[in-house]
Amino acid sequence: MWARAKAAAKGFWDTFRKPSTHFSLGFLALGGFIAGIMFWGGFNTALEATNTETFCVSCHEMNDNVFEELKTTIHYNNRSGVRATCPDCHVPHDWTDKIARKMQASKEVWGKIFGTINTREKFLDERLVLATHEWARLKANDSLECRNCHDYDSMDLTRQSPRSAQIHQRWLGTGEKTCIDCHKGVAHHLPDMSGVPQG
Protein backbone atom coordinates (compact mmCIF):
# COMPACT_ATOMS: atom_id res chain seq x y z
CA MET A 1 0.00 0.00 0.00
CA TRP A 2 2.86 2.35 0.84
CA ALA A 3 4.39 1.75 -2.57
CA ARG A 4 1.08 2.51 -4.31
CA ALA A 5 0.70 5.83 -2.40
CA LYS A 6 4.29 6.75 -3.18
CA ALA A 7 3.76 6.01 -6.87
CA ALA A 8 0.54 8.09 -6.90
CA ALA A 9 2.32 11.00 -5.21
CA LYS A 10 5.23 10.75 -7.67
CA GLY A 11 2.78 10.66 -10.59
CA PHE A 12 1.01 13.76 -9.25
CA TRP A 13 4.33 15.57 -8.75
CA ASP A 14 5.50 14.65 -12.23
CA THR A 15 2.26 15.97 -13.72
CA PHE A 16 2.48 19.13 -11.60
CA ARG A 17 6.00 19.93 -12.75
CA LYS A 18 5.73 18.53 -16.28
CA PRO A 19 6.22 21.29 -18.80
CA SER A 20 3.35 22.37 -20.94
CA THR A 21 4.33 24.09 -24.15
CA HIS A 22 6.34 26.72 -22.26
CA PHE A 23 5.68 26.55 -18.50
CA SER A 24 5.06 23.86 -15.90
CA LEU A 25 1.64 23.36 -14.39
CA GLY A 26 3.11 24.33 -11.00
CA PHE A 27 4.38 27.62 -12.38
CA LEU A 28 0.97 28.37 -13.90
CA ALA A 29 -0.83 27.50 -10.64
CA LEU A 30 1.55 29.67 -8.60
CA GLY A 31 1.21 32.50 -11.12
CA GLY A 32 -2.59 32.23 -10.98
CA PHE A 33 -2.52 32.29 -7.18
CA ILE A 34 -0.33 35.42 -7.09
CA ALA A 35 -2.47 37.12 -9.75
CA GLY A 36 -5.59 36.27 -7.73
CA ILE A 37 -4.12 37.83 -4.59
CA MET A 38 -3.15 40.97 -6.53
CA PHE A 39 -6.63 41.23 -8.09
CA TRP A 40 -8.36 40.70 -4.74
CA GLY A 41 -6.14 43.25 -3.01
CA GLY A 42 -6.68 45.80 -5.79
CA PHE A 43 -10.43 45.17 -5.79
CA ASN A 44 -10.74 45.64 -2.02
CA THR A 45 -8.52 48.73 -2.09
CA ALA A 46 -10.71 50.29 -4.79
CA LEU A 47 -13.86 49.26 -2.90
CA GLU A 48 -12.68 50.95 0.30
CA ALA A 49 -11.41 54.05 -1.57
CA THR A 50 -14.87 54.56 -3.07
CA ASN A 51 -16.43 54.08 0.35
CA THR A 52 -15.22 57.35 1.89
CA GLU A 53 -16.85 60.73 2.35
CA THR A 54 -13.94 62.32 0.45
CA PHE A 55 -14.78 60.21 -2.59
CA CYS A 56 -18.51 60.90 -2.28
CA VAL A 57 -18.14 64.67 -2.24
CA SER A 58 -15.42 64.76 -4.91
CA CYS A 59 -18.05 65.56 -7.54
CA HIS A 60 -19.66 68.97 -7.27
CA GLU A 61 -23.18 67.53 -7.56
CA MET A 62 -22.84 65.98 -4.11
CA ASN A 63 -20.52 68.58 -2.59
CA ASP A 64 -22.65 71.58 -3.55
CA ASN A 65 -26.05 70.06 -2.84
CA VAL A 66 -26.60 67.31 -0.30
CA PHE A 67 -23.27 67.60 1.53
CA GLU A 68 -23.95 71.25 2.37
CA GLU A 69 -27.32 70.18 3.79
CA LEU A 70 -25.75 67.40 5.84
CA LYS A 71 -23.46 69.92 7.54
CA THR A 72 -26.46 71.56 9.23
CA THR A 73 -27.78 68.36 10.81
CA ILE A 74 -27.10 66.50 14.04
CA HIS A 75 -25.63 63.63 12.06
CA TYR A 76 -22.72 65.91 11.07
CA ASN A 77 -22.17 68.09 14.15
CA ASN A 78 -23.42 67.13 17.62
CA ARG A 79 -22.60 67.14 21.32
CA SER A 80 -21.11 63.62 21.27
CA GLY A 81 -18.68 64.28 18.41
CA VAL A 82 -19.83 61.22 16.45
CA ARG A 83 -20.21 62.03 12.76
CA ALA A 84 -22.06 59.97 10.20
CA THR A 85 -20.40 60.10 6.79
CA CYS A 86 -22.07 59.50 3.43
CA PRO A 87 -21.21 55.77 3.31
CA ASP A 88 -22.49 55.25 6.87
CA CYS A 89 -26.02 56.06 5.68
CA HIS A 90 -25.90 55.04 2.04
CA VAL A 91 -23.70 51.92 1.94
CA PRO A 92 -24.38 48.78 4.01
CA HIS A 93 -21.53 47.58 6.20
CA ASP A 94 -21.81 43.84 5.42
CA TRP A 95 -19.66 42.83 2.45
CA THR A 96 -22.34 41.16 0.29
CA ASP A 97 -24.82 44.01 0.83
CA LYS A 98 -22.03 46.51 0.16
CA ILE A 99 -21.21 44.87 -3.19
CA ALA A 100 -24.89 44.90 -4.21
CA ARG A 101 -25.14 48.60 -3.30
CA LYS A 102 -21.96 49.42 -5.25
CA MET A 103 -23.47 47.72 -8.30
CA GLN A 104 -26.62 49.85 -7.89
CA ALA A 105 -24.42 52.93 -7.58
CA SER A 106 -23.05 52.33 -11.06
CA LYS A 107 -26.25 54.03 -12.30
CA GLU A 108 -25.15 57.12 -10.38
CA VAL A 109 -21.86 57.12 -12.30
CA TRP A 110 -23.91 56.96 -15.51
CA GLY A 111 -25.85 60.01 -14.33
CA LYS A 112 -22.59 61.83 -13.58
CA ILE A 113 -21.21 61.10 -17.05
CA PHE A 114 -24.34 62.35 -18.80
CA GLY A 115 -24.96 65.35 -16.51
CA THR A 116 -28.34 64.29 -15.11
CA ILE A 117 -28.01 66.57 -12.07
CA ASN A 118 -24.95 68.68 -12.91
CA THR A 119 -26.66 71.98 -12.01
CA ARG A 120 -28.58 73.04 -8.90
CA GLU A 121 -31.74 73.44 -10.98
CA LYS A 122 -31.49 69.93 -12.43
CA PHE A 123 -30.82 68.55 -8.96
CA LEU A 124 -33.89 70.25 -7.51
CA ASP A 125 -36.02 69.04 -10.45
CA GLU A 126 -34.89 65.43 -9.80
CA ARG A 127 -34.82 65.65 -6.01
CA LEU A 128 -38.12 63.88 -5.34
CA VAL A 129 -37.22 61.04 -7.74
CA LEU A 130 -33.78 60.62 -6.15
CA ALA A 131 -35.22 60.74 -2.62
CA THR A 132 -38.01 58.30 -3.48
CA HIS A 133 -35.47 55.78 -4.79
CA GLU A 134 -33.38 56.08 -1.62
CA TRP A 135 -36.42 55.81 0.66
CA ALA A 136 -37.59 52.71 -1.21
CA ARG A 137 -34.12 51.15 -0.89
CA LEU A 138 -34.05 51.82 2.86
CA LYS A 139 -37.61 50.53 3.27
CA ALA A 140 -36.71 47.33 1.39
CA ASN A 141 -33.68 46.62 3.58
CA ASP A 142 -35.49 47.53 6.84
CA SER A 143 -33.36 50.68 7.28
CA LEU A 144 -30.23 48.56 7.57
CA GLU A 145 -27.83 51.51 7.50
CA CYS A 146 -29.79 53.33 10.22
CA ARG A 147 -29.71 50.22 12.38
CA ASN A 148 -25.93 50.00 12.14
CA CYS A 149 -25.90 52.85 14.68
CA HIS A 150 -29.46 52.99 16.05
CA ASP A 151 -30.59 49.71 17.57
CA TYR A 152 -34.14 49.48 18.95
CA ASP A 153 -33.09 47.04 21.67
CA SER A 154 -30.49 49.56 22.89
CA MET A 155 -32.92 52.50 23.02
CA ASP A 156 -33.70 53.88 26.46
CA LEU A 157 -37.33 54.84 25.88
CA THR A 158 -37.47 56.54 29.29
CA ARG A 159 -35.03 59.17 28.02
CA GLN A 160 -37.15 59.96 24.95
CA SER A 161 -40.13 62.27 24.87
CA PRO A 162 -43.35 60.40 25.72
CA ARG A 163 -44.57 60.79 22.12
CA SER A 164 -41.31 59.45 20.62
CA ALA A 165 -41.19 56.55 23.06
CA GLN A 166 -44.80 55.63 22.29
CA ILE A 167 -44.26 55.80 18.52
CA HIS A 168 -41.00 53.82 18.64
CA GLN A 169 -42.55 51.15 20.84
CA ARG A 170 -45.72 50.90 18.73
CA TRP A 171 -44.18 50.87 15.25
CA LEU A 172 -40.46 50.09 15.48
CA GLY A 173 -40.72 47.65 18.37
CA THR A 174 -43.36 45.58 16.60
CA GLY A 175 -41.58 45.71 13.25
CA GLU A 176 -44.63 47.17 11.50
CA LYS A 177 -42.61 50.15 10.32
CA THR A 178 -38.96 50.92 9.84
CA CYS A 179 -36.84 54.02 10.53
CA ILE A 180 -37.25 55.61 7.09
CA ASP A 181 -41.05 55.54 7.34
CA CYS A 182 -40.91 58.45 9.81
CA HIS A 183 -37.41 59.91 9.48
CA LYS A 184 -37.27 60.90 5.81
CA GLY A 185 -35.69 64.34 6.29
CA VAL A 186 -33.16 63.32 8.90
CA ALA A 187 -29.96 64.32 7.06
CA HIS A 188 -31.04 66.26 3.97
CA HIS A 189 -33.68 68.80 3.05
CA LEU A 190 -36.95 67.27 1.97
CA PRO A 191 -38.21 67.70 -1.58
CA ASP A 192 -41.73 68.94 -2.24
CA MET A 193 -43.66 66.28 -0.31
CA SER A 194 -47.02 66.81 -2.06
CA GLY A 195 -48.55 63.40 -2.61
CA VAL A 196 -45.89 61.55 -0.59
CA PRO A 197 -47.42 59.38 2.17
CA GLN A 198 -46.28 60.41 5.63
CA GLY A 199 -44.94 57.94 8.20
Describe this structure in words.
- There is one protein chain.
- The protein has helices spanning 2-17, 25-49, 53-56, 60-70, 86-90, 95-113, 120-140, 144-147, 162-172, 179-182.
- It has 199 residues and is an all-alpha fold.
- It is elongated, with a radius of gyration of 26 Å.
- Mean of all residue-level pLDDT scores: 87
Q: Count the strands?
A: 0
In helices, the fraction of residues equals 55-70%
**Uncertain regions spanning at least 5 consecutive residues:** none
Task: Assign the structural class, choosing from mainly alpha, mainly beta, alpha/beta, alpha+beta, or little secondary structure.
Answer: mainly alpha
Identify the overall geometry.
elongated
> Largest sheet, if any?
none
- Percent strand equals under 5%
Calculate the terminal CA-CA distance, rounded to whole Å.
Answer: 74 Å
- What's the Cα radius of gyration? 26 Å
**H/E element order:** HHHHHHHHHH
Number of helices: 10
